Amino acid sequence: MIEVLKTGLETAIQDWPGRHGYWNQGFPVSGPMDSWSMRMANVLVGNEPGSAALEAQIFGPALRFTDHRVIAVCGADMKPTLDDEPIPLWESIEVKPGQVLKLGAARSGARSYIAVSGGFASPIVLGSRSTFAKAGVGGVDDGPLVEGQQLPLFDSAGTPGLRVPPHARPTLSTNSIWEVEVCAGPNDDWIDEAGKARFLEADWKLSPKSDRTGYRLEGPEWTFSEKAYDKRPENGALPSNIIDHGYPMGAINLAGQTPIILMNDGPSMGGFINPYTIPSAAFWKLGQAKAGDTLRFREILVEDAQAVAMQLIELCKPETLTQVA
Amino acid sequence: MIYDKPRCLPGGDRYILMEFGNEMNLELNFIAQGFSAALAEAGVTGVIESAPCFASLLVHYEPSKIGYADLVRELLKIFETLGTSDDLEIPSRLFYMPVLYFDPWCEACVDDYRARIADKESDPELIIRENGLKDRAELMRIHSGTEHWVAALGFWPGLPFLMALDTTKRLIAPKYNPPRTDTPQGAIGLGGAATSIYPVATPGGYQVFGRTPIPIWDSTQKNPVFQGDLCLFKPGDRIRFVPIQRDEYDELEAQVSAGQYDYNVVEYQNFVVADYNRWLTKRQEAKQ
User: Fold this and answer.
1) Which of A83, A290, B160, B271 is the most buried (most CB within 10 A)?
2) Domain boundary at B90, B121, B144, which?
């Protein structure tokens, strides 16, 4: 069991790949925004890569352990401490009953993942333990952590002293600039050639009005192809309006002139075009980007995006780990 | 138009958007839903789920199990087996939903919007004017006089996008500009040619003109009608709105909070598109 002393900023239980199978009822996938870091944290403590763990955002929680556990903290550096002694990221660490794990403000990156041996035993809602905070779905009491809450755990021994070698960790940006892969589609043919070139060349600023639902981007104006104007009235009047359709997670959704990246808790459908989509293997960069950071997009082929996603699956396995020297 | 062959468009490494046409009509939604059912039936390796919308379908797949080009090939193969939408039979439940038309809560919500955000015509009056109706009684009669088709769920978990199956009773309305910041739970709204029910209190853009006391969202998953889901409806269900008075509204609301409300739902019917089209032709001829 873990007792929540301080919640941090909407710290919540997530599992990977999240809530599948309910898109046609409007439920988002949810799950970790940086699944690379969360999967590694789980592997370090001997869990399945997708086991339920905690996602801390911008400012982390304080947690007291009631029994022996092995834990790992991966992702953003929130200067984690155990009984006020600093502990390293990307390593499995032994925790004794009564010890307190504290995470502070994110120094580099934005999200940190706390995995605990056994994994969290919160209720499964619609096939997943992931928390969808806005609708009060998932988590221990239908939402993110609450002060004083007891978080149940499954029993399992872990091995302390394991480590994710540097080459197997995501490299967080140190200059607030992120190069993020995108795939063209589904509605790239609604944008003219100049508009496409502008999208790929521009620096896009991540707006403070961004959360797990969507990331708003600030940048140049969009221009459209003939298709965006020559259409039936039920599409809607604006060039970015289309007959309501399903949205892929990661779609760059063009609401008027404001692009919004649809994140893990984003809407399942709506009436705006999606000219580009961020592939799953690039999501960790979004999860670690902060408001005010710059995003630059690099177009890759769908097949290449799939190959990278498969490399990540191969990487997030116990064989990757080394012993702490 | 309805495309001879659907357009398959990639959405990153895990999604394919299939467009069946580029307009909003029931025929296209039947194709999208029929395809969704056929895809589930086919059990293609790597397909996780699909979500039909008005004229398209989003397919979510696992790329470590099937590649993009292979999946597009599979999808088009399944489409070939579909035949025309006239051959479709879609499992379809029918829900009777009691509605207090022109309820005080939606009225208060619109009054609040007019006071705080922007002045506008009252929502029912606007719908009456836009559709050339006589009065509120005629609006209620028309809206409750047809079954509504659940074309899709989205925007918020459980929120149904509904189209009138008797197209001679189709109502239209513009959407709010700017949208409302709040809507009462259970409000009935109209935007474009689509009707909706707000599952919980959320922002919204549809003209609101009635309210149901019956939850369409159950976070406890206790009522058996939800069958382990949090949402009442699925694409392909039908809804009939049943006008009620205030005393019945209060009575039903009390039944709901006591956990004793018995949902009025018919589960023994399939929706046969060919039969529906024949009936619709007759309706349209009668109307002329």
Assistant:
1) B160
2) B90
Pick the residue from chain A with its C-alpha nearest to B17.
A186
- 8 Å CB contact of A27 and B50: no
Same domain? For B114 and B232 the reply is: yes
What H or E segment, with its residue span, contains residue B194? Answer: strand B194-197
d(CA A106, CA A104): 7
| Contact (CB<8Å) A277/B10 | yes
Residue B255 maps to which CATH number? Answer: 2.40.100.10
Q: Please name the residues in contact with B192: beta carbons below 8 A apart, sequence gap of 6 or more.
A: A234, B24, B172, B173, B175
CA dihedral A156, A161, A166, A170 (to 10 degrees): 30
- Give residue-wise pLDDT tens across range B20-64: 999 888 899 999 999 999 999 999 999 999 999 999 999 999 999
Residue B110 sits in the same domain as residue B199 = yes
Q: Which of A107, A135, A164 is the last residue of a domain?
A: A164
Does a structural domain hold residue B285?
A: no
Mutate to test the interface with B, among A238, A244, A252, A314 (most CBs of B within 10 A): A244
Residues A38, A59: one domain?
A: yes
Tens digit of pLDDT at every position of chain A (325 positions): 999 999 999 999 999 999 999 999 999 999 999 999 999 999 999 999 999 999 999 999 999 999 999 999 999 999 999 999 999 999 999 999 999 999 999 999 999 999 999 999 999 999 999 999 988 999 999 999 999 999 999 998 899 999 999 999 999 999 999 999 999 999 999 999 999 999 999 999 999 989 999 999 999 999 999 999 999 877 877 899 898 899 999 999 998 888 999 999 999 998 899 999 999 999 999 999 999 999 999 999 999 999 999 999 999 999 999 999 7
A78 and A57 together in one domain: yes
* Residue among A25, A11, A101, A32 at smallest CA distance from A64: A101
Query: Does residue A92 lie in a domain region?
Result: yes
Q: Which domain holds residue A219?
A: 177-312
Backbone phi, psi, residue B208, to 5°: -105, 135
| Cross-chain Cβ contact A137/B157 below 8 Å | yes
Based on the domain organization, do B83 and B98 belong to the same domain? no
Q: Are residues A49 and A135 in the same domain?
A: yes
pTM: 0.92
Contact B13/A309, CB-based, under 8 Å? yes
Same domain, A27 and A154: yes
Closest Cα partner for A247 from B158, B14, B161?
A: B14
Query: Does residue B280 form part of some domain?
Result: no
- For residue B227, give the chain A residue with the closest CA: A126
Going by C-alpha positions, the residue among A265, A213, A127, A28 that lies closest to residue B229 is A127
Query: Chain A contacts of B158, Cβ < 8 Å?
Result: 25-26
Q: Tell me: do A140 and A257 sit in the same domain.
A: no
Chain A residues closer than 8 Å to B153 by CB: 24-26, 268
B49–A23 C-beta distance less than 8 A: yes
Exposed/middle/buried for residue A188 (C-beta within 10 Å: 0-12, 13-18, 19+): buried
- Closest Cβ–Cβ partner in B15, B52, B159 for A24: B52
> Which residues in B lie closer than 8 A to residue A184 (C-beta atoms)?
10
pLDDT 10s digits, B230-258? 899 999 999 999 999 999 999 999 999 99
Question: Is B276 part of any domain?
Answer: no
**A302, A308, A314: which to substitute to probe chain B, counting the most B Cβ within 10 Å?**
A302
A181, A160: one domain: no
Cβ-based contacts of B13 with chain A (< 8 Å):
183, 279-281, 302, 305-306, 309
For B230, nearest residue in chain A (alpha carbons) = A126
Contact B17 A20 (CB under 8 A): no
Dmax of chain A from CA atoms? 67
Residue of A nearest to B70 (CA): A303
Decide if B204 is inside a domain: yes
ipTM value: 0.97
Same domain, A220 and A277: yes
Q: How many domains does chain B have?
A: 2
